[in-house]
Amino acid sequence: MQTGEATVWTLAATVLVINARYLLFGATLQPWLSQAGPARAYASLLLLGDANWIATMRAAEKGEQDRAYLLGTGVPLMAAWLAGTLAGVLFGGILPDPHALGADLMLPCFAAAMMAAMVRSRAALVPVAVGATAALLISHFAGPGWGIVAAGLAGAGVAALTARPGVVK
């Protein structure tokens, strides 16, 4: 993109790959959310984000029965996201280079925090280890972007193969 050579198809594929995690998020919530009925479940998924997905998974594990939990946690996150986007549009030009501030570490740190919240057993470390190994190997040969894709696919694949049916983890 920085060289001006990115095509609309490249951008669309990038957006698709980056957001594919929401398919997995929705799939993990399906057993719990299906009891709300299709209209309410799909409406809640419109506000699905990384942070409220992990909060909802935790709540479901603890026996939360109110299916509006996902929607209720999504509204404040959406408001914060939109406010942050507006602040970036209005004031982003006056900030120094985000790399100089270390802002490029925010996403990896958030992902590590999500992983730490999800891993509660040695067995749960297996998909993490497989994903990390795939990321390191593929990044070495194809670059960090492809390493992220490889980590997601490998980790999700192992998690899917080792998951117990009907258990929300």
Structure description:
With 169 residues, the protein is an all-alpha fold. The chain folds into 2 domains: 1-97, no CATH class; 119-169. The chain is 72% helix and 0% strand. The chain is built from 9 helices and no strands. The termini are far apart. The mean pLDDT is 83.
Helix content: over 70%
Q: Give the count of structural domains.
A: 2
Mean pLDDT: 83
The number of distinct helices, counting runs of at least 4 residues, comes to: 9
Rg result: 18 Å
SSE topology string: HHHHHHHHH
User: What is the distance, rounded to the nearest whole angstrom, between the alpha carbons of the first and last residues?
Assistant: 38 Å
Number of distinct beta strands: 0
How large a portion of the residues is in β-strands, by DSSP E?
under 5%
Keywords:
about 170 residues; mainly alpha; 2 domains; 9 helices; about 70% helix
In short:
This protein has 169 residues and is mostly helical.
How do the helices and strands line up, and which of them pair or pack?
Layout: H1 8-19, H2 21-33, H3 38-45, H4 50-61, H5 69-91, H6 98-101, H7 106-118, H8 125-142, H9 144-162
Helix pairs in contact: 2-4, 4-5, 8-9
